[in-house]
């Protein structure tokens, strides 16, 4: 994202500062963006430098991914866009890699190996980098404040970051996230500190444009960053992650996590799994304690979510949810999800738009999933009236209650146990309220387990720690571990694939061992064409830790440094 911005900034500076360009401007501004990253990395401390280079690699990676898409089109007979003002995506990829390598051949050698860049090109990169560096430093001489020098007096122009209209859910989320973290506004402020622009304000606008692009408008003197462009790149990553996961036979990973769970959501054990945002045809929101799922486009899609930890065969359980539907042509129904998936017995108790309450069983035929109706119960109230669905389980049987009154029961070996949750099928707006899980034997919610005595904490190691382990291919993961003094921890990992993973829970120490007990994570679910499933929590770990000379801390196999 930052790369795209710096690319457009390059166009802006060429225009605003009337810089001469020899060569294709598109290549030139890619080089500019790369140079800014690498220059930043060189002036930062080693840890920030790694982060900057990771971000740059990620940008390069997106060109490689786009090229993979083009390759597929070429195979289908599409012509190569020779006429385009941009170099081919794959050339842009190698050009960025070339400069990264050239700026520090010793460190970046694994990169060349990994990218399959021929050694002949790599050798030339060692000369290309100093050339580009010299060019940019000369071009911009007198137009920026060199490091460590005071800003010359006088009136200078500045970039101003503005939020334009965000019409899509994705745009709104992106804007929300940026407003919280500073986002581009922060980058723009930092640039204003060093750039010496002609007087005046130059807007940088982030908004939904209706198309995926980012551009410098020379006539209006403004940079426009379309949120659709970021969506486009994000989708390319997610597709790639899915392909990689499919290739390894793993579960498709979830898209990067949406905003945290809203406060006040009253959905019992489902609460921790519910996050507002967009997922396939579904958009989710939390309002006044209720959970609202909306699907406007895909009448065939079934969304479901199950509470983690509810898969214990609990004997007599009682659970339920309040439901209200705004139905349309494509509405099928909504209600409770239940049953043991392992034995193939996934069931749904749905209030259908056609009227009756239905118990459906999921039938898997190879890759596809269909729902078969097992039983119907007519109901007096119209389907769109608010109602409350409840189930009382007893081993292999269930009793069904609507608005507190029993409407019938059913016996099936797959019923009466397994994970529980909610589901919505087809288009429409489905409002769920007050999901609960109780012990049917006593008729009240299961009490939380007795609190364990407060664990011992070695407060010497409280604080923020960062490690940069590399895998066999030299790809680095950044791991940040925050150990809070109140016993909570947050572990954030920036994976080489671009995925950010967060796990949080409780930490304790005893006999030079650090125990981490996960309680939550983000991404928290895995989504496929058939719906979404919560991902299992990582296992608790118990690792030897050892404070090292120089303030480092060894935890298990990794060496952590203080700070973020
Ligand atoms: Zn451009």
* Helix coverage percent: 25-40%
Overall 3D geometry?
globular
* CATH overall fold name of the largest domain: Jelly Rolls
Structural class: alpha+beta
Task: Note down, in words, how this protein is organized.
The chain is an alpha+beta fold and 564 residues long. It folds into 4 domains: 20-139, no CATH class; 146-250, no CATH class; 268-439, Jelly Rolls (Sandwich); 459-563, Lipocalin. It contains 9 helices and 29 strands. Strands 5, 6, 7, 9, 14, 15, 16, 18 and 19 form a 9-stranded antiparallel sheet that branches. Strands 20-21-22-23-24-27-28-29 form an 8-stranded antiparallel β-barrel. A 6-stranded antiparallel sheet has the order 8-17-10-11-12-13, with no helix packed on it. β3 and β4 form a beta hairpin. It is globular. The protein starts with a helix and ends with a strand. Residues 248-259 and 442-452 have low confidence and may be disordered. Zinc ion binds at residues 7, 11, 26, 29.
């Amino acid at each position: 994202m930052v790369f795209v911005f710096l690319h457009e900034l390059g166009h802006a500076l060429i225009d605003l500062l009337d810089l001469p360009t020899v060569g294709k401007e598109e290549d030139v501004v890619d080089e500019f963006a790369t140079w800014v990253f690498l220059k930043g990395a060189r002036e930062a401390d080693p840890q920030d430098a790694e982060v900057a280079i990771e971000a740059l690699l990620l940008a390069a990676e997106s060109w490689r991914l786009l090229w993979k898409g083009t390759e597929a089109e070429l195979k289908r007979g599409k012509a190569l866009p020779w006429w385009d003002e941009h170099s081919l995506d794959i050339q842009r990829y190698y050009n960025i890699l070339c400069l990264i390598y050239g700026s520090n051949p010793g460190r970046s050698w694994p990169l060349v190996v990994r990218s399959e860049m021929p050694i002949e090109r790599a050798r030339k990169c060692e000369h290309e980098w100093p050339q580009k560096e010299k060019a940019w430093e000369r071009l911009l001489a007198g137009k920026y404040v060199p490091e460590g020098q005071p800003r010359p007096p006088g009136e200078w122009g500045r970039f101003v970051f503005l939020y334009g209209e965000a019409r899509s859910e994705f745009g709104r989320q992106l804007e929300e996230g940026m407003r919280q973290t500073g986002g581009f506004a922060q980058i723009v402020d930092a640039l204003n500190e060093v750039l010496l622009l002609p007087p005046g304000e130059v807007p940088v606008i982030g908004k939904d444009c209706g198309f995926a692009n980012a551009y410098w408008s020379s006539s209006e003197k403004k940079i426009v960053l379309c949120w659709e462009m970021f969506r486009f790149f994000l989708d390319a990553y997610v597709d790639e992650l899915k392909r990689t996961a499919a290739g390894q036979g793993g579960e498709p990973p979830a898209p990067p996590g949406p905003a945290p769970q809203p406060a006040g959501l009253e959905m019992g054990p489902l609460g921790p799994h519910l996050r507002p945002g967009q997922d396939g045809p579904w958009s989710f929101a939390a309002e006044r304690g209720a959970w609202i799922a909306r699907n406007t486009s895909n009448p065939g899609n079934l969304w479901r979510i199950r509470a983690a930890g509810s898969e214990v065969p609990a004997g007599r359980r009682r659970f339920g949810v309040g439901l209200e539907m705004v139905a349309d042509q494509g509405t099928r129904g909504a209600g409770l999800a239940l049953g043991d998936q392992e034995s193939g017995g996934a069931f749904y108790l749905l209030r259908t738009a056609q009227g009756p309450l239905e118990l459906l069983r999921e039938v898997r035929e190879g890759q596809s999933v269909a729902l078969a109706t097992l039983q119907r119960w007519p109901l007096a109230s119209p389907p769109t009236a608010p109602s409350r669905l409840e189930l009382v389980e007893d081993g292999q049987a269930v009793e069904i209650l609507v608005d507190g009154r029993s409407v019938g029961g059913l016996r099936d070996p797959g019923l009466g146990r397994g994970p529980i949750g909610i589901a919505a099928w087809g288009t429409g707006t489905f409002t769920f309220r007050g999901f609960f899980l109780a012990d049917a034997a006593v008729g009240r919610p299961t009490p939380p387990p007795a609190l364990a005595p407060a664990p011992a904490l070695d407060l010497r190691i409280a604080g923020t720690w960062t490690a940069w382990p590399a895998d066999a291919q030299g790809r680095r993961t950044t791991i940040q571990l925050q150990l809070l003094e109140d016993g909570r921890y947050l572990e954030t990992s920036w994976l080489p694939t671009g995925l950010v993973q967060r796990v949080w829970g409780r930490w304790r120490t005893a006999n030079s061992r650090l125990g981490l007990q996960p309680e939550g994570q983000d991404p928290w679910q895995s989504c496929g064409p058939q719906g979404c499933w919560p991902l299992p929590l990582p296992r608790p770990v118990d690792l030897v830790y050892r404070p090292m000379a120089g303030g480092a801390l060894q935890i298990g196999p990794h060496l952590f440094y203080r700070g973020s």
